[in-house]
């Protein structure tokens, strides 16, 4: 079910000045130009793309597939996704010809969180086991991590730059400064399919235990100050 690959540690080996230069250069580009430019500045084998296949994931996935259909897309299968999420993943994979690979927690560790119902008492620990750790096992094979974070989604995301060094990987957020209006206009123009739960009031969709209907990310980890799963911190 899950992809397993040998560990090959890759370091981005990039200075603060080089990151500043990248941010200056990419700030003036359109989203499509940013994605195209990424493959000029970095080798494809050094680029990691992740998607949660939630809410409006089709936005970034279509943009990337238009530029590079062979880019691998990692989906973290927590074992707790809504059935609608898995169907949406399959639909987008087929529609845009995506190269999707699923990764997930070790069987015994995932089973522990199920029996323990860890999401109830310690959602951070549950996310660590089922999201953060599985990605950490492959993350060190890449130099650049492409993610669809946007500034208006949360206070934390509002502080980000297009390129940021996070630990030993360079994060790239091509959509970072896209406004809600620009995103919605693109979705309407290209008739992008929404996640089925969006029509039921879900606007940020994660695991079924921790997601309720709500605007933006307010429905995630309901009644808990937690706003991020830990992948992007």
Features:
alpha/beta; 8 helices; single chain; globular; 233 residues; six-stranded mixed β-sheet
Provide the fold topology.
Blueprint: H1 16-27, H2 31-41, E1 47-50, H3 58-67, E2 72-76, H4 83-96, E3 99-103, H5 107-116, H6 118-121, H7 123-139, E4 144-146, E5 163-166, E6 169-172, H8 180-189
Parallel strand pairs: 1-2, 1-4, 2-3, 4-6
Antiparallel strand pairs: 5-6
Helix content range: 25-40%
**Radius of gyration based on Cα positions:** 17 Å
Arithmetic mean pLDDT:
87
Largest sheet composition: 6 strands, mixed
Structure description:
The chain has 233 residues and is α/β, with parallel strands linked by helices. The protein has helices at 16-27, 31-41, 58-67, 83-96, 107-116, 118-121, 123-139, 180-189, and strands spanning 47-50, 72-76, 99-103, 144-146, 163-166, 169-172. It contains eight helices and six strands, in the order H-H-E-H-E-H-E-H-H-H-E-E-E-H. The chain has a six-stranded mixed β-sheet, with helices on both faces. The model is unreliable at 225-230 (pLDDT under 50).
Quick structural gist:
This protein has about 230 residues and is an alpha/beta fold. The protein is built from 8 helices and 6 strands; from the N terminus they run H-H-E-H-E-H-E-H-H-H-E-E-E-H. Strand 1, helix 3 and strand 2 form a beta-alpha-beta unit.
């Amino acid at each position: 079910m899950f992809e397993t690959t040998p560990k090959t540690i890759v370091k981005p080996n990039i200075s603060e000045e080089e990151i500043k230069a990248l941010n200056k250069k990419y700030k003036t580009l359109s989203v499509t130009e940013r994605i195209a430019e990424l493959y000029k500045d970095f080798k494809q084998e050094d680029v990691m793309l992740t998607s949660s296949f939630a809410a409006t994931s089709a936005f970034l996935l279509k943009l990337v597939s238009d530029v590079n259909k062979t880019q691998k897309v990692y989906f973290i299968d927590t074992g707790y996704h809504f059935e609608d999420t898995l169907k949406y993943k399959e639909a987008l994979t087929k529609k845009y010809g995506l190269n999707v690979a699923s990764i997930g927690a070790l069987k015994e560790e995932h089973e522990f969180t199920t029996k323990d119902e860890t999401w109830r008492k310690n959602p951070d620990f549950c996310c660590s086991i089922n999201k953060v750790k599985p990605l950490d096992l492959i993350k060190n094979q890449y130099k650049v991590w492409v993610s669809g974070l946007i500034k208006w989604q949360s206070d934390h995301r509002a502080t980000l730059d297009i390129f940021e060094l996070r630990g030993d990987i360079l994060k790239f957020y091509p959509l970072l400064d896209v406004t809600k209006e620009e995103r919605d206009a693109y979705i309407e123009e290209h008739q992008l399919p929404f996640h089925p739960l969006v029509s039921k009031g879900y606007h940020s969709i994660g695991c079924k235990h921790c997601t309720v209907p709500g605007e933006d990310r307010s429905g995630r980890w309901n009644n808990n100050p937690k706003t991020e799963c830990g992948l992007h911190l």
